[in-house]
Amino acid sequence: xxxxxxxxxxxxxxxxxxxxxxxxxxxxxxxxxxxxxxxxxxxxxxxxxxxxxxxxxxxxxxxxxxxxxxxxxxxxxxxxxxxxxxxxxxxxxxxxxxxxxxxxxxxxxxxxxxxxxxxxxxxxxxxxxxxxxxxxxxxxxxxxxxxxxxxxxxxxxxxxxxxxxxxxxxxxxxxxxxxxxxxxxxxxxxxxxxxxxxxxxxxxxxxxxxxxxxxxxxxxxxxxxxxxxxxxxxxxxxxxxxxxxxxxxxxxxxxxxxxxxxxxxxxxxxxxxxxxxxxxxxxxxxxxxxxxxxxxxxxxxxxxxxxxxxxxxxxxxxxxxxxxxxxxxxxxxxxxxxxxxxxxxxxxxxxxxxxxxxxxx
Length: 361
Hints:
Layout: E1 5-8, E2 16-21, H1 29-36, E3 39-44, H2 50-56, E4 62-65, H3 75-79, E5 86-89, H4 99-104, E6 108-110, H5 115-133, H6 136-144, E7 169-173, H7 177-186, E8 192-196, H8 202-207, E9 211-212, H9 215-221, E10 224-227, H10 241-245, E11 252-255, H11 264-272, E12 278-281, E13 302-304, H12 320-332, H13 346-354
Parallel strand pairs: 2-3, 2-4, 4-5, 5-6, 7-8, 7-10, 8-9, 10-11, 11-12, 12-13
Antiparallel strand pairs: 1-3
């Protein structure tokens, strides 16, 4: 589909305007479904000036998107869209939306926590962890440089053994869907799994075979620290110089959550001082990183991935397409859709839109 294409319903009454930004449905079937329901659908294939596109599509009642990062959809922009009822994300994460502004304006923000997405993140986390602990990158570089076996290339044995070897301790920060799947995948390896999540009842840890500990305890005791918490004001720069100083000098850190949770400069400092064993990042504070970013000059102790740990054959965001589409249709019919992230906006949304459906049943 071409950039900026508008699909107009064949129905005479087209009252609902929809913008699909960075679409995920290559077939276009979901776009046509919305059009056939009576919507005017504008599809924006490439990242660009979303503000200009929204003005061209006026009025806009619904916005569907995968990533809105860099699109400039701030409070001022949201205030300029008085008819906007819903921002429907194909993704799990909504940190690229001004949630406070949307809530204040009575705009629902929905997301799609599909297993294809969060399960893919968990699998990718395990892959990065094993690559770090077994020194896959470093061993590969050794061979390519003409070298062979050395003691420095020894990997880490993960699980507890009958000979008394205790195995490693895996520390999970954030025991949501991804964190729980990581714990489930690692349980057969006989590693000790601890986690911290201040928003969960103790029973959740017990049900998932995970020991609940405070963050400081997790940092001190873990051989692997894996981040699976959302990006919020509370978690931004959660892993900083002070937190890294509490970790074992041989421990490794994995971030497949959000880039700004980690102070990457502090990671580089810790690696340079040999106060961290390694790190793996699928996400970075700046994406893509600047050409002169210090983390790009790191050695084999660091593994970098281009924010696509959830992008897998048979996975990725395909499963989210019907969910995100249905969320829009529900909102345009005057119904509260499932998976509303900013639930505190529902009351205000009902006052504004519940008795003003734009689509016929």
